[in-house]
Amino acid sequence: MEDLSNYRRSYEKGELTEQNLPEDPISLFKKWFHEVEDFDAVAEVNAMTVSTIGKDGFPKARVVLLKQFTYEGFIFYTNYNSEKGKAIEANPNVCLSFFWNELERQVIIKGVAEKVSENISDGYFESRPEGSRLGAIVSPQSEVIPSRDYLENKLHDLENEYKGKEIPRPKNWGGFIVKPVEVEFWQGRPNRLHDRIRYKLQEDFSWLTDRLAP
């Protein structure tokens, strides 16, 4: 047995109080995001875990990159025919989570995912490096493939096919926006008495804030 009971630390890098809380969670998320970004010790501050309920009834979590966020929600891109894409189509209720260890912070977002408009997906796809655009065409994401060579050979063929040409966005590839209904901000504190502030969307689209016990 691998005993991890001594893996512990004291969290002492910040606090989260009710004083000066913004009225909406996106404003606080933006503030935290840029504070972590300015800390300059996080490799990918936009890395987040997306959790879905699969068609087999099991939850599944995976790390993807947040590409945009607005007051409407949080946007990431994927293959719509992937396991996560099919799971979202069957059940759009998802959870996003960010863990920024360096500042001892976590954000957990419950929301409803929906596809972004095609022009938004087109715009982001065109901004990607050529290799990433070709990769989106090459990969039948989440499907069983015979080998790594299978992908490499397909990529090589497409590089030749689209040399000097515009690379079109596959119709099965695009963005999801997760519109939040609940956002929890977690700040590590000493003695495991962590700060947890939850924003919950109300029927009039205002946000109710509560403090949760750690």
UniProtKB/TrEMBL annotation:
Binds 1 FMN per subunit. Belongs to the pyridoxamine 5'-phosphate oxidase family. Its EC number is 1.4.3.5. This is Pyridoxine/pyridoxamine 5'-phosphate oxidase. Pathway: Cofactor metabolism; pyridoxal 5'-phosphate salvage; pyridoxal 5'-phosphate from pyridoxamine 5'-phosphate: step 1/1; Cofactor metabolism; pyridoxal 5'-phosphate salvage; pyridoxal 5'-phosphate from pyridoxine 5'-phosphate: step 1/1. Its cofactor is FMN. Catalyzes the oxidation of either pyridoxine 5'-phosphate (PNP) or pyridoxamine 5'-phosphate (PMP) into pyridoxal 5'-phosphate (PLP). Signal peptide: none annotated. Residues 41-157 form the Pyridoxamine 5'-phosphate oxidase N-terminal domain. HAMAP family: PdxH. Pfam families: PNP_phzG_C, PNPOx_N. Homodimer. Substrate binds at residues 67, 124, 128, 132, 192-194. Gene3D superfamilies: Electron Transport, Fmn-binding Protein, Chain A. NCBIfam families: pdxH (TIGR00558), PRK05679.1 (NF004231). It catalyses: pyridoxine 5'-phosphate + O2 = pyridoxal 5'-phosphate + H2O2; pyridoxamine 5'-phosphate + O2 + H2O = pyridoxal 5'-phosphate + H2O2 + NH4(+). Residues 173-214 form the Pyridoxine 5'-phosphate oxidase dimerisation C-terminal domain. The lineage of its organism: Bacteria, Pseudomonadati, Bacteroidota, Flavobacteriia, Flavobacteriales. It comes from Flavobacterium rhizophilum. InterPro entries: Pyridox_Oxase, Pyridox_Oxase_CS, Pyridox_Oxase_N, Pyridoxamine_oxidase_dimer_C, Split_barrel_FMN-bd. One of its GO terms (molecular function) is pyridoxamine phosphate oxidase activity. Keywords: Flavoprotein, FMN, Oxidoreductase, Pyridoxine biosynthesis. The keyword Oxidoreductase applies.
